[in-house]
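User: These chains co-purify. Model them together.
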Amino acid sequence: MASPVIALTDVGIRFRRNRRSRRTFKDLFAGRKRRSRPDEFWALRSVSFSVQPGEAIGVVGRNGQGKSTLLKLVTGVVLPDEGTVLVKEGVAPLIEITGGFVDDLSVRDNVYLTAGLHGMTRKQIADRFDDIIEFAEIRDFIDTPYKHLSSGMKVRIAFAVISRLEEPIILVDEVLAVGDKAFREKCYRRIEELLAGGRTLFIVSHNERDLRRFCTRGLYLDKGALVLDGPIDDVLAKYNVEYGVEAR
Amino acid sequence: MTTYADVRPEQRTPFARYRHSLWLLTQRDLRVRYSTSLLGYFWSILDPLVMAGIYWFVFTQVFHREVGDSPYIIFLLTALLPWMWFNGAVSDSTRAFLRESKLIRSTRIPRTIWVNRLVLSKGIEFLASLPVLALFAVIYHAPLNINAVFFPLAILIQAVLTAGVGLIVAPLVVFFRDLERAVKLVLRFLFYASPIIYATTNLPPHLHFWAAFNPLSGIFSLYRSAFFPEQLDWFTVGVGAAVSVAILIIGMFVFTRTEHAVLKEI
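Assistant: Joint model of the two components:
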């Protein structure tokens, strides 16, 4: 067996239940281990799994069971309170994809900024620039300030940039729910292309059809724990049994 | 079709990546500031100029000045311009995480960049405002002396100090929003508590020793020595440098200890 690209060992992360609860300097600086406060809950706990290169994994679970948190942990934008998250390769996160875009800058500047922050050099971006613009279908708006784009265009350009990052791991968090039907289909084809190119995919979705289309393996999260890790069909079946949704 | 192995983002050392991201964000800051305002660059020099003009008027036209050195406008600007850098970077660092929360939630880059980019972009604005100082020096025939070689040293110490303070302030504001206003207040106090409109030597003698523990005293005395060699006091500079380094170390400690919690909070 090849060595895994992603390995989570006993990962746990907790959040405060009540945002307004008082915080003191003391508990900010107290060691992470020693601190246990009643108003905190574990969003994820004792989660362990590893992913081989090229796997396509769907994360299933009800709202608020830690799916997005899991993706954020893998992206590295939140850090675990327990355990270790090991990610060996670069990650292209399709999470809050429009987050890095600056309203006042033109589409062109934004593309260079976002791709650059994800580690691409100017030359690499320049080579892909036309591809990105063509994919997003906004050739006429290259020099328009980002804030003047329609919301659909914003998502299109963001998806186009992130999906061109050429990173070996791709994380998708329900972004595909936006955009018109034609563009959504285009995104799906792009993801399939990436998968065929040997990328590792992590996808969070409530759409069973999407999950079955891309994924071979599923992770089922419930109440912050990893309940089942197996073939996607088994995972979806269990999910449907437990939450009474008819399989389509 | 090419596989990802052929076209991956260039593998770079962490340091090169850090520099790359830092530079991109700094450029973005400057570009946003200058593309959205008509006067652009002039705003960054207008602010210190107006302030210098006010103090110059009050202290040379209204009162009879007994502090500082002549020409007073040069004396003022040599400390006011670097003060603008410190003040701007520290007050912006109160919003370093809050303003960029969307980007921080979606991009994995070393988190200290969110503070350091402010130090850098304000530092660049400071450098860009130096021609104003040169212009006044020419108008008032203020001779530049050999101590001007200490300018880079002063910039270095100030960068260390500013980054240190920013690293302390930025994460704490996320938890204690009141701190944002408190910082503004402290900065206003610090403006008068630092030798900007006066020199350290104008303080009562028993305060000289303690003034050295305000690191800005040493930093400003280094900048000033380029025009006023008698302002250079190595004891003050030495203590200031030591305090700056200590603040940076504390800043890095605070930052790493609070990083987990900050990321969850924003």
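Chain A touches chain B at residues 13, 15-16, 23, 28-29, 32, 72, 75-79, 81, 90-91, 93, 95-100, 102, 104-105, 109, 113, 116-121, 124, 165-168, 193-194, 196-199 (CB under 8 Å).
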